[in-house]
Automatic annotation (TrEMBL):
Keyword Oxidoreductase included in the entry's annotation: no
4Fe-4S ferredoxin-type domain sequence ranges: 324-391
Protein name: L-lactate dehydrogenase complex protein LldF
InterPro entries the UniProt entry points to: 4Fe4S_Fe-S-bd, 4Fe4S_Fe_S_CS, FTHF_cligase-like_sf, Helical_ferredxn, LUD_dom, LutB/LldF, LutB_C, NagB/RpiA_transferase-like
Biological process according to GO: lactate metabolic process
Organism listed in the record: Actinoplanes teichomyceticus
Gene3D superfamilies attached to this UniProt entry: Alpha-helical ferredoxin, NagB/RpiA/CoA transferase-like
Ranges for domain LUD: 84-294
Signal peptide: none
GO molecular function annotations of the record: 4 iron, 4 sulfur cluster binding; metal ion binding
Transmembrane portions of the chain: none
Keywords: 4Fe-4S, Electron transport, Iron, Iron-sulfur, Metal-binding, Repeat, Transport
Domain (Lactate utilization protein B C-terminal): residue spans on this chain: 403-475
């Protein structure tokens, strides 16, 4: 049965960070020319891969855990409307307020209005890809509200007027010297003699953020998981900044994608084992924060949960493509992808880079708006092997390639090829003509203009000196003569 949560509309244009201003090949070409970027990416992804591989190898039941995570996600997708209604009821019973946002415009308006009601002109933020997806920071700034990122990597990106390039490590494209220069240039009160020693950089960020934590009354977070059974929200992180944001302010606003819900508290056991080993290469997350509604006298006294669609219903409506909603944002697929390692995240033009971004972003926006992303892969299958919830990304890429708009000349050539291959005599004549005319180009690897545009990124096998038909005919004649 096909499940529809709401109207399967795609994410609106002109807001958020789901569409780039260049195609992937154009952006990747520029990234490939940046030697420093490639060195930064190679070092970082290799380090994460090594750590992750070691801790995964410790679990003899890792494949069973992956299967369990995949089954749980499939179950959630099959009954998402009921689970979300249950989540809303439990959050409301616990003193929270639930808001439904059909798209980025609605979500930004809801959060902005909630902050204005508090009278605050500043918010502190926990690292959240959902808020980046909808462009919340830009919306808040337009309303005269200052958002302050508290995750160290997100802070680096914000101070550098940059964009995230990795799901787990948004500033993976920056090295220590670049971070030092960003801090010197943009961080208020920083020591002008700041060095690029990591502990020194971390101390500078801690000093900058301490006053903000203690003086800001509103926080905005994302959520890694939400438990429908209890109304509990969960955020996992490595620095402790999230814990500060989730406990100190008077008002907490959480923006969460619809797909993050899980049925029961026990289901978290599976994901809290899969996520840290696949993402940071740790056995467990250093900080796992959970909260249920409002507790008088303890933590935020006003809690709002914004449930974000923004194209997710459109993804859910595709029985094949909905696998992309299984993603738990671990970044394992990025860390093993040879394409990502060479181009970085900015080439994808979306807050969701790498293999998962290549299948999720086009579905959220409509494939036509991100038509080059399904081709941003070698289809080597490493992403499928690494995914802790067994998302078959290579199959999704092929599925989306079939839905992507193709140039008129390419469609005409494919129709011509289909016509020939459906008619044996015509196909045999075409083979002879190709061999005689040598239209296969240099060493048989390309086609001459104007068809060379199609083979510039594709290799054609060289034409054999003898076709199968010729070989079969000679074999038959030789048998008769014998």
């Amino acid at each position: 049965m096909t499940t529809f949560l709401g109207m399967p509309a795609t994410a609106p244009r002109g807001v958020g960070q789901l569409r780039g201003d260049r195609t992937f090949p154009q952006a990747a070409h520029a990234a490939l020319g940046d030697a420093q970027l490639r060195r930064n990416l190679r070092h970082a992804t290799a380090t994460i891969r090594s750590r992750s591989g070691r801790v995964i190898a410790e679990l003899p039941d890792w494949q069973q855990l992956r299967a369990a995570g995949s089954a749980l996600k499939a179950d959630v997708m099959a009954r998402l409307p009921q689970l979300l209604q249950q989540l809303e009821a439990r959050v409301s019973e616990a003193g929270g307020v639930v808001h439904w946002a059909a798209d980025a415009h609605e979500a930004n308006a809801i959060v902005t209005d909630l902050v204005r009601r508090t009278g605050s002109d500043r918010v502190i933020k926990v690292k959240s890809m959902a808020t980046q997806e909808i462009g919340l920071n830009e919306a808040l700034e337009a309303a005269g509200i200052t958002p302050v990122e508290t995750d160290l990597a997100e802070l680096i990106v914000q101070l550098g007027d940059d964009r995230p390039s990795h799901i787990l490590v948004p500033a993976i494209h920056r090295n220590r010297s670049e971070i030092r220069d960003i801090f010197r240039r943009s961080m208020p009160g920083v020591d002008p003699d700041l060095t690029d020693d990591p502990p020194v950089l971390a101390a500078a960020a801690r000093k900058y953020l301490r006053e903000t934590f203690l003086s800001t009354t509103v926080a905005v977070s994302g959520a890694n998981f939400a438990v429908a059974e209890t109304g509990t929200l969960a955020v996992v992180e490595s620095e402790g900044n999230g814990r500060m944001c989730l406990t100190l302010p008077d008002t907490l606003i959480t923006v969460m994608g619809l797909e993050k819900v899980v049925p029961t508290w026990a289901d978290l056991e599976v994901f809290l084992q899969l996520l840290p080993r696949s993402s940071t290469g740790e056995r467990m997350n250093p900080y796992t924060s959970m909260w249920t509604g409002v507790t008088p006298g303890d933590g935020p006294q006003n809690f709002h949960l914004v449930l974000l669609d923004n194209g997710r219903s459109a993804v859910l409506a595709d029985p094949v493509g909905r696998q992309a909603l299984h993603c738990i944002r671990c970044s394992a697929c990025l860390n093993v992808c040879p394409v990502y390692e060479r181009t970085g995240g900015h080439a994808y033009g979306s807050v969701y880079p790498g293999p998962i971004g290549a299948v999720l972003s086009p579905q959220l926006t409509g494939v036509a708006d991100n038509a080059s992303l399904p081709y941003a892969s070698s289809l080597c299958g490493a992403c499928f092997d690494a995914c802790p919830v067994k998302i078959d990304i290579p199959s999704l890429l092929v599925h989306l390639r079939n839905r992507a708009p193709h140039p008129r000349a390419e469609r005409a050539m494919m129709r011509a090829a289909a016509y020939l291959m459906d008619r044996p005599r015509a196909y045999a004549r075409a083979q002879r003509a190709a061999k005689l005319a040598r239209i296969a180009g240099r060493r048989g690897r390309g086609l001459p203009p104007p068809l060379s545009g199609w083979t510039a990124g594709r290799d054609l096998p060289p034409l054999p000196e003898q076709t199968f038909r010729d070989w079969w005919a000679r074999r038959a004649r030789a048998a008769e003569e014998a």
